[in-house]
Amino acid sequence: MPRASNRQPPEIGIDITTAHPARVQNYLSGGDAHFAVDRKAIEHATAVLPGGLEAGRKSVRSMAAFHTRALRYLVVEAGIRQFLKLGTAVPVGDDVHEITQSAAPGTRVVYVGDDPTVLAHAHTLRDPGTQRPGDTPGTTAYVHGGIRDVDLILGEAALTLDLDRPVALVLPATLNFVDSSDDPYGIVAEFVETVATGSYLVLTHITQEVGSDQAMSETAKRFSKLLGKPFVIRNRDEIAGFLTGLEPVDPGLVLIDQWWPPSTGTPTPAGSNHPPPNEPDDRPTPIYACIARKP
């Protein structure tokens, strides 16, 4: 069971002078929950990349497609009925609860975020008028906090999730915003230790190993400055460290467009159980992805 926490959630107040990762992601996804500072930050940061801003948009599309594949696999093949998403934006298109509950009504989902625009969106999840046919009321909740607030998150999540039963921990590039000084490996290990055997970790993490290392490093430096917080890119070995003690699901830790669920005999939308071809620019997406099970 999670320990009681004396740490308070982040203060609620929209800061439109500093970019925020959740709003930047919403902008790259084509949403409208962002401000000029968010647009300027990512446009400036990606200006040094081959493909510029479109490279950022492609990465967001690849992450959305991966999460759809991963979540459906966990619901349909692994039988998971509880999800904790650590780091969320105002979505454009279906998010975790829509993807999972469409496959298994009654699935429980808890979102965690620390931006007030995300909090405002979260209130709509509790509005029965926003539910679609097949949704089960009371299975979606939100915790206002950051990934470092482990005890706070687990304590609040336990009001919706049964932590004695398997849970999927979903980290959508969240660890890119946790500096080594904050012990990201320890944070992940604490979440994994708390959840039950048979739980899963769904991990995506931006890397510098694809394309120009110099360009990615400069992008990270620019983005960090405009965010006012670290934006950390890691290599494959460093990312693999987050999977210590876990059993990766085939094909393991791979570039995100190469991750596809193990063959089950059911054709994917692309017509096979293999990744679709790269987009026309043919540049691999610089993100590693993996699903791993707690034995």
Overview of the molecule:
With 295 residues, the protein is an alpha/beta fold. It has one domain: Vaccinia Virus protein VP39 (Rossmann fold, 3-Layer(aba) Sandwich). The chain contains nine helices and eight strands. Strands 1, 2, 3, 4, 5, 6, 7 and 8 form an eight-stranded mixed β-sheet that branches. The longest helix is centred in the first third of the chain and has 24 residues, at 53-76. It starts with 20 loop residues before the first helix and ends with a strand.
Give a quick set of tags describing it.
295 residues, alpha/beta, Rossmann fold, 8-stranded mixed beta sheet, 34% helix, 13% strand, disordered N terminus
